[in-house]
Protein backbone atom coordinates (compact mmCIF):
# COMPACT_ATOMS: atom_id res chain seq x y z
CA UNK A 1 0.00 0.00 0.00
CA UNK A 2 2.91 2.36 0.65
CA UNK A 3 3.55 2.92 -3.01
CA UNK A 4 0.05 3.41 -4.35
CA UNK A 5 -0.07 7.22 -4.01
CA UNK A 6 -3.80 7.79 -3.64
CA UNK A 7 -3.81 11.46 -2.68
CA UNK A 8 -3.58 13.06 -6.18
CA UNK A 9 -6.67 11.13 -7.26
CA UNK A 10 -8.60 11.96 -4.11
CA UNK A 11 -8.02 15.61 -5.00
CA UNK A 12 -10.01 15.11 -8.21
CA UNK A 13 -13.06 14.18 -6.15
CA UNK A 14 -12.51 17.17 -3.89
CA UNK A 15 -12.45 19.48 -6.91
CA UNK A 16 -15.52 17.82 -8.43
CA UNK A 17 -17.32 18.24 -5.09
CA UNK A 18 -16.49 21.94 -4.91
CA UNK A 19 -14.23 21.45 -1.88
CA UNK A 20 -11.12 22.59 -3.76
CA UNK A 21 -10.22 24.38 -6.96
CA UNK A 22 -8.21 23.12 -9.88
CA UNK A 23 -8.39 21.14 -13.07
CA UNK A 24 -8.24 17.46 -13.89
CA UNK A 25 -4.70 16.13 -14.31
CA UNK A 26 -4.04 12.58 -15.38
CA UNK A 27 -5.53 9.73 -17.35
CA UNK A 28 -9.29 9.49 -17.72
CA UNK A 29 -9.32 6.16 -15.89
CA UNK A 30 -7.76 7.46 -12.66
CA UNK A 31 -11.11 7.40 -10.84
CA UNK A 32 -11.08 3.64 -11.33
CA UNK A 33 -7.52 3.46 -10.02
CA UNK A 34 -8.68 5.24 -6.88
CA UNK A 35 -11.59 2.85 -6.39
CA UNK A 36 -9.16 -0.07 -6.69
CA UNK A 37 -7.04 1.52 -3.97
CA UNK A 38 -10.14 1.84 -1.78
CA UNK A 39 -10.95 -1.81 -2.38
CA UNK A 40 -7.44 -2.76 -1.27
CA UNK A 41 -7.87 -0.77 1.95
CA UNK A 42 -11.16 -2.54 2.63
CA UNK A 43 -9.63 -5.97 2.04
CA UNK A 44 -6.82 -5.16 4.47
CA UNK A 45 -9.42 -3.99 6.98
CA UNK A 46 -11.01 -7.43 6.77
CA UNK A 47 -7.76 -8.99 7.97
CA UNK A 48 -6.55 -6.33 10.40
CA UNK A 49 -9.10 -3.76 11.52
CA UNK A 50 -7.63 -0.26 11.82
CA UNK A 51 -9.85 2.49 13.25
CA UNK A 52 -7.76 5.25 11.63
CA UNK A 53 -8.22 3.78 8.16
CA UNK A 54 -11.90 3.17 8.83
CA UNK A 55 -12.35 6.85 9.63
CA UNK A 56 -10.32 7.85 6.60
CA UNK A 57 -12.54 5.74 4.37
CA UNK A 58 -15.61 7.40 5.89
CA UNK A 59 -14.19 10.83 5.05
CA UNK A 60 -13.28 9.80 1.50
CA UNK A 61 -16.73 8.33 0.88
CA UNK A 62 -18.34 11.59 2.00
CA UNK A 63 -16.24 13.47 -0.57
CA UNK A 64 -17.15 11.01 -3.33
CA UNK A 65 -20.83 11.28 -2.46
CA UNK A 66 -20.66 15.06 -2.59
CA UNK A 67 -18.99 14.89 -6.03
CA UNK A 68 -21.69 12.62 -7.48
CA UNK A 69 -24.40 14.29 -9.54
CA UNK A 70 -27.99 14.05 -8.36
CA UNK A 71 -28.79 11.70 -11.26
CA UNK A 72 -26.02 9.31 -10.17
CA UNK A 73 -23.40 10.24 -12.79
CA UNK A 74 -19.89 10.12 -11.36
CA UNK A 75 -16.81 10.71 -13.49
CA UNK A 76 -14.48 13.44 -12.26
CA UNK A 77 -12.93 14.52 -15.61
CA UNK A 78 -16.40 15.55 -16.83
CA UNK A 79 -17.59 16.88 -13.48
CA UNK A 80 -14.50 19.06 -13.04
CA UNK A 81 -14.76 20.43 -16.58
CA UNK A 82 -18.41 21.33 -16.00
CA UNK A 83 -17.64 22.91 -12.63
CA UNK A 84 -14.97 25.02 -14.33
CA UNK A 85 -17.52 26.29 -16.85
CA UNK A 86 -16.84 23.99 -19.79
CA UNK A 87 -20.25 22.57 -20.70
CA UNK A 88 -18.96 21.15 -23.99
CA UNK A 89 -17.66 18.15 -22.04
CA UNK A 90 -20.60 15.79 -21.50
CA UNK A 91 -21.13 12.25 -20.22
CA UNK A 92 -20.15 9.60 -22.76
CA UNK A 93 -18.89 12.26 -25.16
CA UNK A 94 -15.69 10.28 -25.76
CA UNK A 95 -15.58 6.48 -25.80
CA UNK A 96 -12.02 6.64 -24.43
CA UNK A 97 -13.12 8.45 -21.28
CA UNK A 98 -13.48 5.08 -19.51
CA UNK A 99 -16.65 6.08 -17.65
CA UNK A 100 -18.02 2.53 -17.61
CA UNK A 101 -14.67 1.15 -16.46
CA UNK A 102 -14.48 3.65 -13.61
CA UNK A 103 -18.04 3.00 -12.47
CA UNK A 104 -17.45 -0.75 -12.60
CA UNK A 105 -14.57 -0.47 -10.16
CA UNK A 106 -16.73 1.78 -7.98
CA UNK A 107 -19.36 -0.97 -7.80
CA UNK A 108 -16.86 -3.67 -6.87
CA UNK A 109 -15.15 -1.51 -4.25
CA UNK A 110 -18.54 -0.59 -2.78
CA UNK A 111 -19.57 -4.23 -2.44
CA UNK A 112 -16.29 -5.12 -0.75
CA UNK A 113 -16.64 -2.13 1.59
CA UNK A 114 -20.15 -3.26 2.52
CA UNK A 115 -19.08 -6.86 3.09
CA UNK A 116 -16.16 -5.85 5.30
CA UNK A 117 -17.71 -3.00 7.30
CA UNK A 118 -21.44 -3.64 7.08
CA UNK A 119 -21.88 -0.01 6.00
CA UNK A 120 -23.85 1.01 2.92
CA UNK A 121 -22.46 4.53 2.40
CA UNK A 122 -20.33 3.63 -0.62
CA UNK A 123 -22.84 1.02 -1.74
CA UNK A 124 -25.55 3.69 -2.08
CA UNK A 125 -23.22 5.77 -4.26
CA UNK A 126 -22.50 2.75 -6.46
CA UNK A 127 -26.19 1.93 -6.75
CA UNK A 128 -26.97 5.47 -7.87
CA UNK A 129 -24.22 5.19 -10.50
CA UNK A 130 -25.63 1.85 -11.69
CA UNK A 131 -29.12 3.32 -11.80
CA UNK A 132 -27.77 6.14 -13.96
CA UNK A 133 -26.37 3.55 -16.37
CA UNK A 134 -29.68 1.70 -16.29
CA UNK A 135 -31.49 4.83 -17.43
CA UNK A 136 -28.84 5.91 -19.95
CA UNK A 137 -28.68 2.47 -21.58
CA UNK A 138 -32.37 1.58 -21.41
CA UNK A 139 -32.47 1.19 -25.20
CA UNK A 140 -28.84 0.89 -26.34
CA UNK A 141 -27.74 2.32 -29.68
CA UNK A 142 -24.79 1.39 -31.90
CA UNK A 143 -23.08 4.61 -30.83
CA UNK A 144 -23.44 3.68 -27.17
CA UNK A 145 -22.09 0.20 -27.85
CA UNK A 146 -18.63 1.68 -28.38
CA UNK A 147 -18.41 2.66 -24.71
CA UNK A 148 -17.68 -0.85 -23.46
CA UNK A 149 -13.90 -0.39 -23.35
CA UNK A 150 -12.17 -2.41 -20.59
CA UNK A 151 -15.50 -3.58 -19.18
CA UNK A 152 -14.99 -3.83 -15.43
CA UNK A 153 -18.66 -2.84 -15.17
CA UNK A 154 -19.84 -6.35 -16.06
CA UNK A 155 -18.13 -7.70 -12.95
CA UNK A 156 -19.21 -4.64 -10.98
CA UNK A 157 -22.87 -5.08 -11.84
CA UNK A 158 -22.76 -8.78 -10.96
CA UNK A 159 -21.16 -7.84 -7.64
CA UNK A 160 -24.01 -5.39 -7.03
CA UNK A 161 -26.60 -8.01 -7.95
CA UNK A 162 -25.14 -10.56 -5.55
CA UNK A 163 -24.70 -8.03 -2.76
CA UNK A 164 -28.13 -6.39 -2.97
CA UNK A 165 -30.22 -9.17 -4.52
CA UNK A 166 -31.76 -6.62 -6.89
CA UNK A 167 -32.43 -8.24 -10.27
CA UNK A 168 -32.21 -4.97 -12.18
CA UNK A 169 -28.43 -5.09 -11.94
CA UNK A 170 -28.34 -8.57 -13.48
CA UNK A 171 -30.72 -7.38 -16.20
CA UNK A 172 -28.49 -4.37 -16.88
CA UNK A 173 -25.41 -6.58 -17.13
CA UNK A 174 -27.20 -8.80 -19.67
CA UNK A 175 -28.30 -5.74 -21.64
CA UNK A 176 -24.82 -4.22 -21.71
CA UNK A 177 -23.18 -7.46 -22.82
CA UNK A 178 -25.79 -7.87 -25.55
CA UNK A 179 -25.19 -4.24 -26.54
CA UNK A 180 -21.71 -5.18 -27.79
CA UNK A 181 -23.36 -6.89 -30.77
CA UNK A 182 -24.60 -3.49 -32.00
CA UNK A 183 -21.08 -2.17 -32.55
CA UNK A 184 -20.44 -0.74 -36.02
CA UNK A 185 -16.88 -0.59 -37.39
CA UNK A 186 -15.47 -2.29 -34.32
CA UNK A 187 -11.99 -3.73 -34.10
CA UNK A 188 -9.91 -6.32 -32.32
CA UNK A 189 -8.32 -3.88 -29.88
CA UNK A 190 -11.64 -3.67 -28.05
CA UNK A 191 -12.79 -7.22 -28.96
CA UNK A 192 -15.84 -5.88 -30.85
CA UNK A 193 -15.06 -6.67 -34.50
CA UNK A 194 -17.66 -9.43 -34.27
CA UNK A 195 -20.29 -10.52 -31.72
CA UNK A 196 -18.80 -12.24 -28.70
CA UNK A 197 -20.50 -15.57 -29.39
CA UNK A 198 -18.66 -15.74 -32.74
CA UNK A 199 -15.23 -15.23 -31.17
CA UNK A 200 -12.88 -18.17 -30.77
CA UNK A 201 -9.50 -16.61 -29.92
CA UNK A 202 -8.09 -13.89 -27.68
CA UNK A 203 -7.40 -10.66 -29.56
CA UNK A 204 -6.54 -7.07 -28.91
CA UNK A 205 -5.71 -5.16 -25.76
CA UNK A 206 -4.97 -7.83 -23.16
CA UNK A 207 -6.44 -5.96 -20.18
CA UNK A 208 -9.65 -5.18 -22.02
CA UNK A 209 -9.79 -8.78 -23.21
CA UNK A 210 -9.28 -10.48 -19.86
CA UNK A 211 -11.70 -8.10 -18.14
CA UNK A 212 -14.26 -8.90 -20.85
CA UNK A 213 -13.79 -12.64 -20.46
CA UNK A 214 -13.99 -12.38 -16.66
CA UNK A 215 -17.18 -10.35 -16.85
CA UNK A 216 -18.87 -12.72 -19.26
CA UNK A 217 -17.83 -15.73 -17.15
CA UNK A 218 -19.43 -13.92 -14.21
CA UNK A 219 -22.62 -13.43 -16.21
CA UNK A 220 -22.63 -17.05 -17.39
CA UNK A 221 -22.55 -18.23 -13.78
CA UNK A 222 -25.89 -16.47 -13.24
CA UNK A 223 -27.76 -17.09 -16.50
CA UNK A 224 -26.16 -20.25 -17.93
CA UNK A 225 -26.07 -19.13 -21.58
CA UNK A 226 -24.33 -21.99 -23.42
CA UNK A 227 -23.36 -19.75 -26.34
CA UNK A 228 -21.38 -17.51 -24.00
CA UNK A 229 -19.68 -20.48 -22.38
CA UNK A 230 -18.77 -22.01 -25.73
CA UNK A 231 -16.85 -18.89 -26.72
CA UNK A 232 -15.25 -18.59 -23.29
CA UNK A 233 -14.00 -22.17 -23.47
CA UNK A 234 -12.56 -21.72 -26.97
CA UNK A 235 -10.87 -18.47 -26.03
CA UNK A 236 -9.48 -20.01 -22.83
CA UNK A 237 -8.00 -22.91 -24.77
CA UNK A 238 -6.49 -20.44 -27.24
CA UNK A 239 -4.88 -18.36 -24.50
CA UNK A 240 -3.49 -21.22 -22.42
CA UNK A 241 -2.24 -23.32 -25.32
CA UNK A 242 -1.16 -20.68 -27.84
CA UNK A 243 -0.90 -17.17 -26.38
CA UNK A 244 0.02 -17.24 -22.69
CA UNK A 245 3.55 -16.91 -21.38
CA UNK A 246 5.08 -19.57 -19.15
CA UNK A 247 4.66 -17.07 -16.28
CA UNK A 248 0.90 -16.70 -16.80
CA UNK A 249 1.50 -13.33 -18.46
CA UNK A 250 -0.84 -12.07 -21.19
CA UNK A 251 -0.29 -9.62 -24.02
CA UNK A 252 2.78 -10.18 -26.19
CA UNK A 253 2.74 -6.96 -28.18
CA UNK A 254 3.39 -3.33 -27.42
CA UNK A 255 1.83 -2.48 -30.78
CA UNK A 256 0.55 -4.44 -33.75
CA UNK A 257 -2.18 -5.07 -36.29
CA UNK A 258 -5.07 -7.49 -35.97
CA UNK A 259 -6.15 -9.75 -37.54
CA UNK A 260 -2.56 -9.78 -38.80
CA UNK A 261 -2.28 -11.14 -42.34
CA UNK A 262 -6.02 -11.17 -42.99
CA UNK A 263 -7.10 -11.53 -46.61
CA UNK A 264 -9.74 -8.89 -45.91
CA UNK A 265 -7.49 -5.93 -45.25
CA UNK A 266 -10.43 -3.68 -44.42
CA UNK A 267 -10.95 -5.54 -41.14
CA UNK A 268 -7.37 -5.01 -39.97
CA UNK A 269 -7.03 -2.48 -37.15
CA UNK A 270 -4.26 -1.25 -34.90
CA UNK A 271 -3.90 -2.96 -31.53
CA UNK A 272 -1.73 -2.05 -28.56
CA UNK A 273 -0.65 -3.81 -25.37
CA UNK A 274 -2.22 -6.77 -27.04
CA UNK A 275 -2.39 -10.46 -27.70
CA UNK A 276 -0.51 -11.33 -30.87
CA UNK A 277 -0.75 -14.20 -33.32
CA UNK A 278 -0.82 -17.77 -32.11
CA UNK A 279 2.61 -18.71 -30.70
CA UNK A 280 3.86 -15.11 -31.06
CA UNK A 281 5.58 -14.85 -27.67
CA UNK A 282 8.68 -12.63 -27.78
CA UNK A 283 10.71 -12.26 -24.60
CA UNK A 284 12.65 -8.98 -24.62
CA UNK A 285 9.75 -7.08 -26.17
CA UNK A 286 6.98 -8.87 -24.26
CA UNK A 287 4.41 -6.40 -22.95
CA UNK A 288 2.57 -8.48 -20.32
CA UNK A 289 1.00 -5.53 -18.53
CA UNK A 290 0.54 -6.24 -14.85
CA UNK A 291 -3.18 -5.44 -15.15
CA UNK A 292 -3.53 -8.02 -17.93
CA UNK A 293 -1.93 -10.65 -15.73
CA UNK A 294 -4.35 -9.70 -12.96
CA UNK A 295 -7.16 -9.94 -15.51
CA UNK A 296 -6.02 -13.50 -16.17
CA UNK A 297 -6.57 -14.26 -12.48
CA UNK A 298 -9.99 -12.58 -12.44
CA UNK A 299 -11.02 -14.58 -15.49
CA UNK A 300 -9.76 -17.96 -14.32
CA UNK A 301 -11.33 -17.54 -10.89
CA UNK A 302 -14.71 -16.99 -12.49
CA UNK A 303 -14.22 -19.91 -14.86
CA UNK A 304 -13.48 -22.09 -11.82
CA UNK A 305 -16.59 -20.86 -10.03
CA UNK A 306 -18.62 -21.82 -13.09
CA UNK A 307 -17.25 -25.34 -13.62
CA UNK A 308 -15.12 -26.28 -10.60
CA UNK A 309 -12.19 -27.46 -12.73
CA UNK A 310 -8.72 -27.31 -11.20
CA UNK A 311 -7.05 -26.23 -14.44
CA UNK A 312 -8.35 -22.72 -13.86
CA UNK A 313 -6.77 -22.54 -10.40
CA UNK A 314 -3.53 -23.83 -11.92
CA UNK A 315 -3.45 -20.83 -14.25
CA UNK A 316 -4.54 -18.50 -11.46
CA UNK A 317 -1.72 -19.74 -9.21
CA UNK A 318 0.82 -19.53 -12.03
CA UNK A 319 -0.03 -15.90 -12.69
CA UNK A 320 -0.17 -14.97 -9.00
CA UNK A 321 3.26 -16.34 -8.11
CA UNK A 322 5.05 -15.19 -11.23
CA UNK A 323 3.68 -12.44 -13.46
CA UNK A 324 1.73 -10.61 -10.72
CA UNK A 325 4.13 -10.61 -7.75
CA UNK A 326 6.78 -9.45 -10.22
CA UNK A 327 4.86 -6.19 -10.68
CA UNK A 328 6.03 -4.72 -7.36
CA UNK A 329 9.41 -4.66 -5.64
CA UNK A 330 10.04 -6.17 -2.23
CA UNK A 331 9.65 -2.76 -0.56
CA UNK A 332 6.19 -2.28 -2.09
CA UNK A 333 7.06 1.15 -3.50
CA UNK A 334 8.21 0.61 -7.09
CA UNK A 335 6.28 -1.02 -9.90
CA UNK A 336 6.59 -2.68 -13.28
CA UNK A 337 3.99 -1.73 -15.88
CA UNK A 338 5.34 -4.27 -18.38
CA UNK A 339 6.84 -7.64 -17.49
CA UNK A 340 9.23 -9.01 -20.13
CA UNK A 341 10.84 -12.42 -19.81
CA UNK A 342 14.23 -11.13 -20.84
CA UNK A 343 16.07 -7.89 -20.24
CA UNK A 344 19.21 -7.04 -22.16
CA UNK A 345 21.38 -3.93 -22.17
CA UNK A 346 21.50 -4.34 -25.95
CA UNK A 347 17.76 -4.58 -26.60
CA UNK A 348 17.06 -4.06 -30.33
CA UNK A 349 14.30 -1.47 -29.86
CA UNK A 350 13.44 1.39 -27.53
CA UNK A 351 10.32 0.43 -25.59
CA UNK A 352 7.81 2.35 -23.55
CA UNK A 353 8.15 1.78 -19.81
CA UNK A 354 11.49 0.03 -20.30
CA UNK A 355 14.06 -0.27 -17.53
CA UNK A 356 13.50 -1.05 -13.89
CA UNK A 357 10.53 -0.58 -11.62
CA UNK A 358 9.40 2.98 -11.02
CA UNK A 359 7.50 4.64 -8.16
CA UNK A 360 5.07 6.29 -10.57
CA UNK A 361 4.03 5.98 -14.20
CA UNK A 362 1.39 8.15 -15.82
CA UNK A 363 -0.68 5.06 -16.58
CA UNK A 364 -1.05 4.24 -12.89
CA UNK A 365 -3.63 1.48 -13.18
CA UNK A 366 -1.32 -1.37 -12.14
CA UNK A 367 -0.15 -0.40 -8.61
CA UNK A 368 -3.61 -0.18 -7.01
CA UNK A 369 -4.68 -3.26 -8.96
CA UNK A 370 -1.71 -5.08 -7.47
CA UNK A 371 -2.60 -3.82 -4.01
CA UNK A 372 -6.17 -5.10 -4.16
CA UNK A 373 -5.08 -8.42 -5.68
CA UNK A 374 -2.46 -9.14 -3.04
CA UNK A 375 -4.73 -7.92 -0.23
CA UNK A 376 -7.51 -10.17 -1.51
CA UNK A 377 -5.53 -13.31 -2.35
CA UNK A 378 -7.30 -15.14 0.47
CA UNK A 379 -10.52 -14.91 -1.54
CA UNK A 380 -9.06 -17.45 -3.97
CA UNK A 381 -7.66 -19.87 -1.37
CA UNK A 382 -10.89 -21.79 -0.85
CA UNK A 383 -14.27 -22.42 -2.41
CA UNK A 384 -17.31 -23.93 -0.76
CA UNK A 385 -20.77 -25.36 -1.41
CA UNK A 386 -23.42 -26.96 0.81
CA UNK A 387 -21.16 -29.67 2.22
CA UNK A 388 -17.85 -29.17 0.39
CA UNK A 389 -14.68 -27.14 0.85
CA UNK A 390 -12.38 -26.73 -2.15
CA UNK A 391 -8.77 -26.21 -1.07
CA UNK A 392 -7.41 -24.24 -4.00
CA UNK A 393 -4.23 -22.52 -2.84
CA UNK A 394 -1.73 -23.80 -0.33
CA UNK A 395 -0.17 -21.66 2.38
CA UNK A 396 -0.21 -21.39 6.16
CA UNK A 397 -3.66 -20.07 7.07
CA UNK A 398 -6.89 -20.77 8.91
CA UNK A 399 -10.33 -21.17 7.35
CA UNK A 400 -13.29 -20.62 9.67
CA UNK A 401 -16.55 -21.06 7.77
CA UNK A 402 -20.10 -22.40 7.81
CA UNK A 403 -21.44 -24.94 5.33
CA UNK A 404 -25.19 -25.04 4.74
CA UNK A 405 -25.53 -28.79 5.24
CA UNK A 406 -22.49 -29.50 7.40
CA UNK A 407 -22.36 -26.61 9.84
CA UNK A 408 -19.29 -24.94 11.29
CA UNK A 409 -15.88 -26.03 9.99
CA UNK A 410 -12.44 -24.78 10.98
CA UNK A 411 -9.43 -25.87 8.94
CA UNK A 412 -5.79 -25.01 9.63
CA UNK A 413 -3.01 -25.23 7.04
CA UNK A 414 0.69 -25.36 7.92
CA UNK A 415 3.26 -25.36 5.11
CA UNK A 416 6.28 -23.62 3.58
CA UNK A 417 4.69 -23.86 0.14
CA UNK A 418 5.69 -22.88 -2.56
CA UNK A 419 9.26 -23.54 -1.42
CA UNK A 420 8.31 -26.92 0.05
CA UNK A 421 5.73 -29.41 -1.19
CA UNK A 422 4.72 -30.70 2.26
CA UNK A 423 1.29 -29.46 3.38
CA UNK A 424 -0.41 -30.28 6.67
CA UNK A 425 -4.15 -29.68 6.95
CA UNK A 426 -5.76 -30.07 10.37
CA UNK A 427 -9.50 -30.37 10.94
CA UNK A 428 -9.54 -28.12 14.00
CA UNK A 429 -13.32 -27.98 14.49
CA UNK A 430 -16.29 -29.64 12.80
CA UNK A 431 -19.82 -30.89 13.44
CA UNK A 432 -21.04 -34.47 13.39
CA UNK A 433 -21.94 -34.12 9.72
CA UNK A 434 -20.22 -35.29 6.52
CA UNK A 435 -17.83 -32.77 4.97
CA UNK A 436 -16.19 -33.24 1.58
CA UNK A 437 -12.71 -31.80 1.24
CA UNK A 438 -11.50 -31.33 -2.31
CA UNK A 439 -7.73 -30.89 -2.39
CA UNK A 440 -6.24 -29.46 -5.57
CA UNK A 441 -3.54 -31.54 -7.19
CA UNK A 442 -1.68 -29.11 -9.48
CA UNK A 443 -0.98 -30.01 -13.07
CA UNK A 444 2.78 -29.88 -12.42
CA UNK A 445 2.52 -32.37 -9.52
CA UNK A 446 3.45 -35.68 -11.15
CA UNK A 447 4.23 -37.45 -7.86
CA UNK A 448 1.94 -36.88 -4.87
CA UNK A 449 1.40 -38.75 -1.61
CA UNK A 450 -1.59 -38.33 0.70
CA UNK A 451 -1.93 -39.47 4.32
CA UNK A 452 -4.69 -39.14 6.91
CA UNK A 453 -3.42 -39.33 10.51
CA UNK A 454 -0.20 -40.82 9.18
CA UNK A 455 -1.87 -43.59 7.17
CA UNK A 456 -1.49 -43.52 3.36
CA UNK A 457 -4.82 -43.40 1.56
CA UNK A 458 -5.88 -45.60 -1.32
CA UNK A 459 -7.60 -42.69 -3.02
CA UNK A 460 -6.67 -42.25 -6.68
CA UNK A 461 -4.61 -39.10 -7.15
CA UNK A 462 -4.34 -37.42 -10.54
CA UNK A 463 -2.56 -34.22 -11.42
CA UNK A 464 -4.69 -31.29 -12.64
CA UNK A 465 -7.67 -32.42 -10.61
CA UNK A 466 -9.16 -32.42 -7.12
CA UNK A 467 -8.91 -35.41 -4.83
CA UNK A 468 -12.14 -35.77 -2.84
CA UNK A 469 -12.18 -36.85 0.81
CA UNK A 470 -15.72 -37.11 2.22
CA UNK A 471 -16.51 -38.34 5.71
CA UNK A 472 -17.65 -37.32 9.16
CA UNK A 473 -14.37 -35.89 10.41
CA UNK A 474 -13.06 -35.96 13.96
CA UNK A 475 -11.57 -32.76 15.35
CA UNK A 476 -7.79 -33.03 15.32
CA UNK A 477 -7.60 -35.18 12.19
CA UNK A 478 -4.44 -34.36 10.22
CA UNK A 479 -4.22 -34.65 6.44
CA UNK A 480 -0.77 -34.56 4.86
CA UNK A 481 -0.09 -33.83 1.21
CA UNK A 482 3.36 -34.15 -0.28
CA UNK A 483 4.09 -32.83 -3.75
CA UNK A 484 7.46 -33.79 -5.21
CA UNK A 485 9.18 -30.57 -6.31
CA UNK A 486 12.15 -31.31 -8.56
CA UNK A 487 13.57 -28.53 -10.69
CA UNK A 488 12.34 -29.22 -14.22
CA UNK A 489 13.50 -28.04 -17.62
CA UNK A 490 10.56 -26.81 -19.69
CA UNK A 491 10.53 -26.46 -23.47
CA UNK A 492 8.05 -24.53 -25.58
CA UNK A 493 5.98 -25.62 -28.57
CA UNK A 494 8.23 -25.60 -31.67
CA UNK A 495 6.04 -22.92 -33.27
CA UNK A 496 7.19 -20.47 -30.59
CA UNK A 497 10.12 -19.53 -32.81
CA UNK A 498 11.98 -17.34 -30.32
CA UNK A 499 12.45 -20.12 -27.78
CA UNK A 500 13.27 -23.05 -30.06
CA UNK A 501 16.18 -25.00 -28.56
CA UNK A 502 15.76 -23.05 -25.33
CA UNK A 503 14.56 -24.18 -21.92
CA UNK A 504 13.05 -22.49 -18.91
CA UNK A 505 13.23 -23.78 -15.35
CA UNK A 506 10.28 -24.39 -13.03
CA UNK A 507 10.06 -25.82 -9.57
CA UNK A 508 6.55 -26.34 -8.30
CA UNK A 509 4.52 -23.30 -9.38
CA UNK A 510 7.58 -21.03 -9.46
CA UNK A 511 9.28 -19.96 -12.70
CA UNK A 512 12.99 -19.24 -12.36
CA UNK A 513 15.33 -16.89 -14.18
CA UNK A 514 19.02 -16.11 -14.43
CA UNK A 515 19.97 -12.58 -13.38
CA UNK A 516 23.31 -10.99 -14.26
CA UNK A 517 23.82 -9.92 -10.63
CA UNK A 518 24.50 -13.57 -9.83
CA UNK A 519 27.11 -14.13 -12.57
CA UNK A 520 30.89 -13.97 -12.22
CA UNK A 521 32.56 -10.77 -13.41
CA UNK A 522 33.06 -10.48 -17.17
CA UNK A 523 30.48 -13.19 -17.81
CA UNK A 524 27.71 -12.33 -20.25
CA UNK A 525 24.29 -13.82 -19.70
CA UNK A 526 24.01 -14.22 -23.48
CA UNK A 527 26.98 -16.63 -23.50
CA UNK A 528 25.52 -19.16 -21.08
CA UNK A 529 24.01 -22.47 -22.15
CA UNK A 530 22.09 -25.14 -20.25
CA UNK A 531 23.49 -28.68 -20.49
CA UNK A 532 20.77 -31.21 -21.19
CA UNK A 533 21.84 -33.20 -18.12
CA UNK A 534 22.15 -30.21 -15.81
CA UNK A 535 21.48 -30.89 -12.13
CA UNK A 536 19.85 -27.98 -10.32
CA UNK A 537 19.82 -28.23 -6.53
CA UNK A 538 17.27 -26.24 -4.51
CA UNK A 539 18.50 -24.35 -1.46
CA UNK A 540 16.51 -21.96 0.70
CA UNK A 541 18.30 -18.67 1.31
CA UNK A 542 16.59 -16.85 4.20
CA UNK A 543 18.69 -13.69 3.84
CA UNK A 544 18.42 -13.36 0.07
CA UNK A 545 15.56 -11.30 -1.37
CA UNK A 546 13.48 -11.64 1.81
CA UNK A 547 13.87 -15.41 1.75
CA UNK A 548 13.68 -17.48 -1.43
CA UNK A 549 14.64 -20.92 -2.69
CA UNK A 550 17.41 -20.64 -5.28
CA UNK A 551 18.53 -23.33 -7.71
CA UNK A 552 22.26 -24.00 -7.89
CA UNK A 553 24.06 -25.76 -10.70
CA UNK A 554 26.61 -25.54 -13.48
CA UNK A 555 25.90 -24.02 -16.89
CA UNK A 556 28.17 -23.95 -19.93
CA UNK A 557 29.95 -20.76 -20.95
CA UNK A 558 30.60 -20.30 -24.66
CA UNK A 559 32.13 -16.96 -25.59
CA UNK A 560 30.33 -15.58 -28.65
CA UNK A 561 32.80 -12.78 -29.38
CA UNK A 562 32.04 -9.38 -30.81
CA UNK A 563 29.54 -9.06 -33.65
CA UNK A 564 30.36 -5.50 -34.64
CA UNK A 565 28.35 -4.37 -37.69
CA UNK A 566 27.27 -7.83 -38.87
CA UNK A 567 23.89 -9.45 -39.28
CA UNK A 568 25.29 -12.88 -40.25
CA UNK A 569 28.69 -14.57 -39.98
CA UNK A 570 30.23 -17.99 -40.47
CA UNK A 571 29.69 -20.32 -37.54
CA UNK A 572 32.84 -21.37 -35.71
CA UNK A 573 32.55 -23.97 -32.94
CA UNK A 574 33.96 -22.79 -29.63
CA UNK A 575 34.83 -24.82 -26.55
CA UNK A 576 32.73 -24.45 -23.44
CA UNK A 577 33.67 -24.21 -19.80
CA UNK A 578 31.53 -24.83 -16.71
CA UNK A 579 30.27 -21.89 -14.66
CA UNK A 580 28.60 -22.22 -11.27
CA UNK A 581 25.37 -20.20 -11.14
CA UNK A 582 22.25 -19.75 -9.09
CA UNK A 583 18.81 -19.15 -10.52
CA UNK A 584 16.29 -17.05 -8.60
CA UNK A 585 12.49 -16.91 -8.77
CA UNK A 586 11.44 -14.69 -11.66
CA UNK A 587 9.18 -12.59 -9.46
CA UNK A 588 12.10 -11.22 -7.40
CA UNK A 589 14.44 -10.13 -10.17
CA UNK A 590 15.30 -6.40 -10.42
CA UNK A 591 15.49 -5.96 -6.65
CA UNK A 592 19.28 -5.59 -6.52
CA UNK A 593 19.95 -2.73 -8.89
CA UNK A 594 20.17 -2.61 -12.66
CA UNK A 595 20.68 -5.99 -14.26
CA UNK A 596 20.08 -8.24 -17.21
CA UNK A 597 17.77 -11.24 -16.90
CA UNK A 598 16.40 -14.14 -18.87
CA UNK A 599 13.80 -16.82 -18.22
CA UNK A 600 14.60 -18.78 -21.37
CA UNK A 601 18.16 -20.04 -21.86
CA UNK A 602 19.64 -21.86 -24.88
CA UNK A 603 20.46 -25.53 -24.62
CA UNK A 604 24.04 -26.66 -24.93
From TrEMBL:
Alphabetical GO biological process terms: carbohydrate metabolic process
Domain Non-reducing end beta-L-arabinofuranosidase-like GH127 catalytic span(s) in chain numbering: 6-377
Ranges where the Non-reducing end beta-L-arabinofuranosidase-like GH127 C-terminal domain occurs: 488-602
InterPro entries reported for this sequence: 6-hairpin_glycosidase_sf, 6hp_glycosidase-like_sf, Beta-AFase-like, Beta-AFase-like_GH127_C, Beta-AFase-like_GH127_cat, Beta-AFase-like_GH127_middle
The Non-reducing end beta-L-arabinofuranosidase-like GH127 middle domain, residue ranges: 388-485
Domain of life per record: Bacteria
Coiled-coil ranges per UniProt: none
Protein name: Protein containing DUF1680
Amino acid sequence: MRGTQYKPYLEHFRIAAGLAEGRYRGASFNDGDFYKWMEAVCLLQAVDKDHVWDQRLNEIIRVIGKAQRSDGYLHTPVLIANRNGDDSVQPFGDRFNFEMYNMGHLMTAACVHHQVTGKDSLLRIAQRAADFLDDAYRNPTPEQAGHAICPSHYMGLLDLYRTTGEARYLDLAKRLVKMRDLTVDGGDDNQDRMPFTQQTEAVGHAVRATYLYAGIADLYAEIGDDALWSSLEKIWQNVVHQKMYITGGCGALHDGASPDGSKNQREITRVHQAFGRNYQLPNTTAHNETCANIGNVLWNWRMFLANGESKHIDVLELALYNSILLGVDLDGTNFFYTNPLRRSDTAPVALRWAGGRKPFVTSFCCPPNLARTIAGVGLYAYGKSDDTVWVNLYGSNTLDTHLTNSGHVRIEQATDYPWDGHIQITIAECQNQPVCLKLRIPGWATKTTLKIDGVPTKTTIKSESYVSLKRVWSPGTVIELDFAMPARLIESHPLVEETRNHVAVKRGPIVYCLESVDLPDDTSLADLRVPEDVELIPRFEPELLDGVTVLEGELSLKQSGQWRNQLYREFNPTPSSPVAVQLIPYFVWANRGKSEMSVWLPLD
